[in-house]
C-alpha cells in the first residue's frame, strides 16, 4: 500500500509536532548512494548503489547516478567539474520555500534512522574479489545511552541456493560518551557459511566496551612449554599467552571536500580514507622452553596509540 508523508502545522505556524508517529515510520527510508569501488576484470569502472538511510520528510529529490555522470562528462576534468559547482554555489541563494522549511527530521529527538536489513555482495575486481555491504531497508531506532552489543543481520550469497542470514552483531552508537571515546567491539566469535567452495568464516561481534578510538583487544595464542622440575621430572604443558591486537583508527576531521549547497548531508566528493595508524605502544615478553628444548620469546601488546 502506498503511503504519503505530510507535515501539518497550525494556523499560527509556531508549533510543529516533530515526533509524530506517522512521520517517524514513513520518512525514514533508503535512498540511492553510489560508491565507486574500482575496475572489473574487463577494466570497466564499477559503481555500487550501497544505499543510505535518511530521515527527512519532504526532502528534495536527489539527482540520479546517471544524471550525475552526464553532468560530469560535460567537463574535461574533475577540477573543472568542481570549479563549476563552486561557481554555482556562490550565486544568489534561492528563496526558501515552505517545503524546504518543513524538511524536519522524522525519527524524533531520541531516535535515529538506521539500516534494518543489509546484504553482502561479492564483486570480482581487477585487484581481486571484494565484499560490499548494501543497505536494503531502514527504520527509526532508539538512541541508546549504554554501550552494548546490538543485533546486525547480514544476508550472504543473496538470491542463490546458499543464501544465509547471520547476526554478525555491532556496537550501539551510545550518546553522551566522553570525548574521544566510542562504543567498539572487544570480543569476537565466528560463524560458518556454506558456499560452492566449501565454507566461509564470518567474524561476529560478541561484546562491546567504551574505548578510545585506538585500543587494545585480547588475542590469545597457545604454545607447548617444557618445564623441568627440581626432582628431575620433565613436564610438557600448554602455555596460554594473550598477545593482544590493536584495533581502531586515528583519522580525524571530516573527509567531505565538497557538500551539496541544497542538502548539507549530501557529499559530492570524499577525501581518501587514511590507512589505520593504530599501533602497539607498550609490550612485555614471555620466555619459555619449546618442545625442542630451545628458549623462545613471545612479545605481547599491553597498550596501543596513534602513530603520527
UniProtKB/TrEMBL annotation:
Domain of life where this protein originates: Eukaryota
Name of the protein this chain belongs to: Pinhead
Organism of derivation: Seriola lalandi dorsalis
Amino acid at each position: 500500500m502506498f503511503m504519503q508523508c505530510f507535515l501539518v502545522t497550525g494556523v499560527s505556524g509556531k508549533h510543529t509536532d516533530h515526533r509524530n508517529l506517522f512521520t517517524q515510520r514513513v520518512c525514514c527510508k533508503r535512498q540511492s548512494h553510489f560508491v565507486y569501488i574500482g575496475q572489473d576484470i574487463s577494466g570497466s569502472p564499477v559503481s555500487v548503489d550501497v544505499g543510505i538511510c535518511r530521515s527527512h520528510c519532504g526532502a528534495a529529490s536527489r539527482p540520479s547516478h546517471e544524471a550525475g555522470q552526464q553532468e560530469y562528462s560535460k567537463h574535461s576534468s574533475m577540477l573543472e567539474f568542481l570549479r563549476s559547482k563552486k561557481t554555482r554555489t556562490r550565486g544568489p541563494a534561492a528563496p526558501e520555500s515552505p517545503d524546504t522549511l518543513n524538511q524536519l527530521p522524522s525519527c524524533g529527538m531520541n531516535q535515529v534512522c538506521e539500516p534494518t536489513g543489509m546484504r553482502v555482495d561479492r564483486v570480482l575486481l581487477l585487484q581481486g574479489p571484494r565484499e560490499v555491504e548494501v543497505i536494503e531497508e531502514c527504520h527509526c531506532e532508539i538512541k541508546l545511552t549504554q554501550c552494548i552489543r546490538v543485533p546486525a543481520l547480514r544476508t550472504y550469497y543473496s538470491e542463490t541456493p546458499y543464501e544465509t542470514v547471520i547476526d554478525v552483531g555491532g556496537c550501539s552508537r551510545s550518546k553522551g560518551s566522553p570525548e574521544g571515546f566510542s562504543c567498539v567491539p572487544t570480543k569476537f566469535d565466528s560463524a560458518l557459511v556454506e558456499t560452492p567452495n566449501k565454507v566461509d568464516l564470518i567474524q561476529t561481534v560478541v561484546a562491546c566496551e567504551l574505548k578510545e578510538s585506538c585500543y587494545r583487544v585480547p588475542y590469545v595464542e597457545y604454545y607447548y612449554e617444557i618445564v623441568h622440575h627440581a626432582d628431575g621430572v620433565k613436564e610438557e604443558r600448554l602455555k596460554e599467552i594473550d598477545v593482544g591486537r590493536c584495533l581502531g583508527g586515528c583519522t580525524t576531521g571530516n573527509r567531505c571536500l565538497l557538500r551539496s549547497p541544497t542538502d548539507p548531508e549530501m557529499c559530492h566528493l570524499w577525501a581518501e580514507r587514511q590507512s589505520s595508524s593504530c599501533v602497539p605502544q607498550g609490550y612485555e615478553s614471555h620466555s619459555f622452553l619449546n618442545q625442542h628444548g630451545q628458549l623462545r620469546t613471545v612479545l605481547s601488546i599491553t597498550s596501543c596509540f596513534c602513530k603520527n
